[in-house]
């Protein structure tokens, strides 16, 4: 475990690389009903038990024919009809055709379907007015998915694009990763739970509320230990309880220089944790490491800083632990700044912004306003981070900047 007690600032990339290099996905999995699998992560590749489609069928409403009987322009009488769910099962005399509907099984012997728009129907039968090739308008068995083929790999989050696919294969249960168990608490005598009246010098515990909401969106099982006062015995009990019950423990507050030393003292006793000064704004103080059983992330006390470090560092950590191998943050894009942006060199700056496309299709972005680490409303007003490079200074209106659209954790 790397300890970072120096005054040097470390980059976001360095912090994330250190964190991800130390953790591995959970090994436990479970089999659950497909109807309960939304948001879960596949623990193993899903193999198709059937061919899709399971039988050759018509891609068009039209007529099933044997192409070797089309060498004259004589009309073909209609021998019968085939529908989806009601195939033609009678005898099929030579030099006749079968009326067929989309999805209906191809009659034995047919090697083409001619769409009805290319047919002329008369009392004598059906005459076709376009060239015909063998195999046209026929969906072959297994053309989409072959029996035994891997349909989804391990590490995929199941949602509206994946679950109907599995349902179409008749898959009733799927093997998924066990849900992560995450314990969360806040520290500080000044904190008051949401819904309780504030006393003199108190503020509401925004961080735990926000972290819990984000954890629930990520599909974690949340163990909420509430607010832990600045008391050594209470803090030790909270850490021991969290460590014994959870895969990950997340606290907010108590990781900044000058704050009460109880958190740092407890972590030194209970595990190996590094206290980092990150070269990002907001969110400089951050702690990461291993308790006896669980991983630990210590978020800053300021609400905007806590949300940002959770988003940029804890979110990818949880994704890896959960086995979500396809997880990525949205790609950064280039946009033109419509408003000046205050910035001093030294730290990578994540300002909250509002981006949109102009009439020419170019991306533009403006600031949500005041960027203080206590102004949580900037998240509800914005739809992206304006990501300003570590050594960049003041940005004038009209300059190009990087933006990172919010994903579902912060976005709509």
What characteristics describe this protein?
single chain; about 400 residues; alpha/beta; 5-stranded mixed β-barrel; 7 helices; 26 strands
Oligomer kind: single chain
Share of helix, binned: 10-25%
Low-confidence stretches: 1-6
Tell the overall outline: elongated
SS elements, strand count: 26
Mean pLDDT: 91
Count of DSSP-assigned helices: 7
Cα end-to-end separation = 37 Å
Largest sheet at a glance? Answer: 6 strands, mixed
Give the structural class. Answer: alpha/beta
Strand content: 25-35%
Please state how the strands of the largest beta sheet are arranged side by side.
16-13-17-21-20-18
Radius of gyration: 31 Å
Descriptive report:
The chain is an alpha/beta fold. The chain has seven helices and 26 strands.
Short structural summary:
The protein is 18% helix and 29% strand. It is of the alpha/beta class. The strands form 8 sheets. It has a 6-stranded mixed sheet, sandwiched between helices. A 5-stranded mixed barrel has the order 22-24-23-25-26.
